[in-house]
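TA notes, week 10

Several of you asked for a full example with nothing omitted. So below is the full record: structure tokens for the whole chain, then the designed sequence directly under it. When grading your own attempts, check the secondary structure regions first.
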């Protein structure tokens, strides 16, 4: 893996990528943050050695380097998922590459369905903890100890300092920011009524199909990480509506300006 990471990094440096202070992973329908980035260079995923290619139509496929709020950032415009047929190794490979480029902190966004019905469509949830239901670990491979401690402590997977800044920023800007537990499943199918009931019983506030692998690897690499989830739909097993992808994307777009404000204020203060 080390050779692959180095080859990817060498390619990016040859294209003009510098050393980022912060890495940002943009989830489903959450690309507007790039409007505020002073872009210096970008690379398509399918040109970067060993990078997967985004196959979901509403996920772009570019790695972008530039400046946001005075900080050098590297931004993933689109991410990878297990449901696309990739392994956990593939899904998290970009995090390891961004770390090797020089990334010091990681910010993650995603779209999710509310299990906690106090959370409404178009609102935001700061992820305080998570439940891994993806059936594996991105650290379960031979030689992982060469890249970091094999038995990674996950008692505090999300950085308390950055989370506090997010909460203060939300309060200052009158933005509703819930705090809760994110459950990550494989997908791509949505949950059944029984599965929504199960997720509630085990303590999930929201459910999605991403993020947790990247968080685990960030902790493996010793990178402080924080994540915000956009609530795009509600998983009410007693009144379950059929999935409407266009509605999900519309709700993500509705919440996106608030998420951008929070990300920008965080970058100012770290």
């Amino acid at each position: 893996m080390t050779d692959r990471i180095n080859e990817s990094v060498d390619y990016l440096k040859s294209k003009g990528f510098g050393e980022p202070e912060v890495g940002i992973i943009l989830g489903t329908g959450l690309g507007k943050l790039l409007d505020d980035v002073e872009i210096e260079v970008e690379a398509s995923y399918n040109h970067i050695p060993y990078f997967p290619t985004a196959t979901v139509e509403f996920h772009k496929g570019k790695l972008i380097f530039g400046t946001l709020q005075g900080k050098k950032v590297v931004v993933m415009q689109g991410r990878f998922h297990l449901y696309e047929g990739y392994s956990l190794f593939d899904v998290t490979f970009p995090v390891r590459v961004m770390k090797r480029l020089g990334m010091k902190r990681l910010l993650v966004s995603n779209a999710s369905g509310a299990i906690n019905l106090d959370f409404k469509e178009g609102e935001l949830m700061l992820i305080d903890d998570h439940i891994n239901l993806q059936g594996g670990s991105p650290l379960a491979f031979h030689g992982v100890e060469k890249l970091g401690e094999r038995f990674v402590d996950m008692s505090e997977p999300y950085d308390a300092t950055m989370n506090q800044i997010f909460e203060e920023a939300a309060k200052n800007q009158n933005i509703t920011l819930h705090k809760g537990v994110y459950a990550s499943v494989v997908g791509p199918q949505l949950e059944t009524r029984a599965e929504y009931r199960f997720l509630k019983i085990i303590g999930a506030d929201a459910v999605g199909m991403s993020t947790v692998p990247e968080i685990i690897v960030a902790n493996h690499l010793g990178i402080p990480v924080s994540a915000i989830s956009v609530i795009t739909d509600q998983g009410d097993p007693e009144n379950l509506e059929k999935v409407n992808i266009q509605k999900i994307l519309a709700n993500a777009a509705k919440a996106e300006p608030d998420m951008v404000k929070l990300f920008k204020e965080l970058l100012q203060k770290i």
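Residues 115 and 199 are 7 Å apart (CA to CA). Use that as a sanity check on your answer.
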